[in-house]
Design a protein that fits this description.
Elements lengths: L3 H21 L11 E6 L7 H16 L8 H17 L4 E5 L8 H21 L5 E5 L8 H20 L6 E6 L5 H18 L2 E8 L2 H4 L7 H9 L3 E6 L1 H7 L12 H14 L5 E3 L11 H20 L5 E3 L4 H29 L9 H17 L4 H8 L3 H7 L6
Parallel strand pairs: 1-2, 1-8, 2-3, 3-4, 4-5, 5-6, 6-7
Length: 409
Amino acid sequence: MLEESLYAELDRRLAPVDAARVAAYPGARPGRQPVHTCYVPADAVVPGLAETWGTAALAALDEHGLPDLGLEPALARQVWPRVRAKLAAEPIEDLRVDAEDGYRGPPAQEDGDVRAAAAAVAADLAAGAAPPSLGVRAKSLEEATRRRGVRTLDLFLGGLAGALRARNAPVRITVTLPKVTDVEQVHAFLPVLEALERSHGLVLDLELQVETPQAVLGADGTVALARMVHAAGPRLSGLHYGTYDYSAALGIAAAHQSSDHPAADLAKDLMQVAVAGTGAVAVDGSTNVLPVGTTEQVHAAWQLHAGLVRRALERGLYQGWDLHPAQLVTRYAATYAFFRAALPAAAARLAAYLDRVNGGVLDEPATARALAGVVLRGLDCGALDVPEVEAATERRIADLAAVGGRPAR
């Protein structure tokens, strides 16, 4: 038998390693991750924005009809009524007021547009009509734009502060920092966020946009993404891939710039590895092929978008960008089809795992956690309902949440 002193020495030597790992990798954040982030230019943000987008998405469906997304008929019959219900009830899960690339107003007009956008969002908060998640994207910390960017944040958050303090439930606001090129920008931005919190009495999360090669691979040959993630710490909620800025920076021709390009996959693979276990998430980018024009053009754009959403979901990227109301149609159609198609097998494997039944697949705890995570994500977004999940798994949602490492619903 080995002496107890050997075990004690192992504990002594590895205790600091254990503590450092727990601090750096605390695990997933509690709560729901949105399936998308809708970027809306600051000068286009008006009261009732979410409802307006939902109405426009439904109007596009009514005008152009259901697209052929390759769904089995039985699955399609389940998905499309749910999509319509989602577009009527909660069309936008996460709104980002955009004062960066999507905003085209002249510099002299930005203050007024940002104040008006804040007032519109505040009105929706007061009316209970705001999306569940909210945030703002200002300009980058590069020398030419950093003062303008911070001023925009100050004005927007100041305009929201009163409405947020009037709510009974706390609301976290996400600040998106675009075009990050160096970990020192993250270090320098954290005191700015702290000052904004103190000034306006808010709680702020941080997103970093991966739009430059320097954000992925540093000059010293290290993966800069990982350094940025740990520099931001628990305030970081996600890394967002910027499809077109990143592709252009690599010299990829405009006709081939897409979120499914191999160069995009490399960046997003590294994003996923960098955030794994930290509580932050990796988020897919956008497509600029919008569903507008003739029915043929709209259906082609919907098919492209649905394919990209499905591809991202298969790769574990559960959130992406939407830039146009009609993209909500295929965001939810592809997402709902993915989760509903996954339920039968996931439910059977979870039931077997929880019952310790030997079957054709022997799942380990990590796989069971992933299976439960897929089911819980389907519940979060409305793809699945509690009664059907509990019937399929023969377990209460609280039991599934425990397997998935989540607090009970």
